[in-house]
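> example.struct
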């Protein structure tokens, strides 16, 4: 049989502060047989009843959690998509100011978008900068305009991107003419 014995001692450090030290020692008790030989006595393990009861409780908890989780996932995906698109707009604005070139985020379809950069400053000839990128599963996007971020950080025209999940919930990402990007 194994047992842990805890020994607590106290001592003073150099500053005279009393400190406690906990020492754990592991002892094995021996079982003596009739012939006088000693064998290690083992009491470890779980009974079949304990395992069945544990599995039953776990199954009940899973049965309760799965339906609740499945109703929360579309909302989490919508919030994730809103943050993702907002970050792309803000990154495009920052790149436009840093590189003195116009940038824009173009929605190719309801589920993909790409970031484009002006190739020649002032010529409005855009080339692919990054993408195409996908929105999270079961999220669709609809944009009323394609905002172009200028080198001063402003955007023209102002735009709204509406994201929708499978439950019909929506989030709107608004890009103002001064370049502010916010989730509404």
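> example.seq
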């Amino acid at each position: 049989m194994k047992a842990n014995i805890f020994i607590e001692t106290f001592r003073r450090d150099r500053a005279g502060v009393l400190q406690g030290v906990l020492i754990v020692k592991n002892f094995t008790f021996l079982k003596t047989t009739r012939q006088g030989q000693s064998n290690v006595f083992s009491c470890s393990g779980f009974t079949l009843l304990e395992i069945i009861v544990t599995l039953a409780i776990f199954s009940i908890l899973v049965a309760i959690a799965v339906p609740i989780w499945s109703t929360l996932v579309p909302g989490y995906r919508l919030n994730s998509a809103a943050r993702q698109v907002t970050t792309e707009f803000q990154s495009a604005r920052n790149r436009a100011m840093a590189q003195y070139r116009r940038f824009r985020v173009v929605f190719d379809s309801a589920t993909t978008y790409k970031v484009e950069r002006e190739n020649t400053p002032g010529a409005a000839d855009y080339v692919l900068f990054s993408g195409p990128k996908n929105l999270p599963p079961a999220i669709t996007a609809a944009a009323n305009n394609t905002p172009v971020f200028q080198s001063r950080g402003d955007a023209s025209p102002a735009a709204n991107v509406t994201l929708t999940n499978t439950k019909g919930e929506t989030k709107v990402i608004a890009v103002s003419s001064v370049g502010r990007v916010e989730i509404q």
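> remarks
The helical segments are 48-99.
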